[in-house]
Amino acid sequence: MSIIIAMCTYALTMSISPGPVNIITMTSGLNHGIYRTVPFVAGATIGFTSLLFCIGLGASELIVLFPTFMLAIGYIGATFMLYMAYKIAFSKGTIALSEENKPGFYQGFLLNILNPKAWIASISGVAAFTTTGDLSSLFLFCALYFFICFIGVGSWAVVGQQAKILVQTESRLRIFNMLMGAGLATVAIYLLLT
């Protein structure tokens, strides 16, 4: 039972901690509401869980066999984050809910597949909580992570929607979007430089 608690704690900590996916989720929650952000959260959750499962099946060997693979993932992921940062920062500050620049399922899925933080979390988690050749521990870890990741990432949409009270004018919303876009761009640039 203690291994399950450890898996859940790890999954919650990694899912709820600030990162590119959670910045976009919060911004989408504020701009589009919780329900319109659910497809992005679902995509991010399925993308991460798929990555976790593939790493557990041995995809982490790619890093050993091809050391530049992780470097390429980092560059591709950072470039995609810069694109998303641009979309967020320069979205119109309209209060009415619209489909403009609303991140969807595919953006969430791709962002977690290309997110170096997701790769590191997957590799660390698989190493800590599964044993080689034991698929039952991998299935358990992935199942727990799926539900916890959905809740952890989804909570950022709730925070975003609640923050709408603070940005009730279009100019404030535009400033918020620019700050969130700049924050995401900073993360992406940091990943490119490290």
TrEMBL record:
One Pfam entry name: LysE
Membrane topology: Multi-pass membrane protein
Entry's localization field: Cell membrane
Keyword terms: Cell membrane, Membrane, Transmembrane, Transmembrane helix
Major subcellular site: membrane
InterPro entries hit by this protein: LeuE-type (IPR001123)
Transmembrane portions of the chain: 33-55, 62-86, 138-159, 175-193
Name of the protein described by the UniProt record: LysE family translocator
Native organism: Kiloniella antarctica
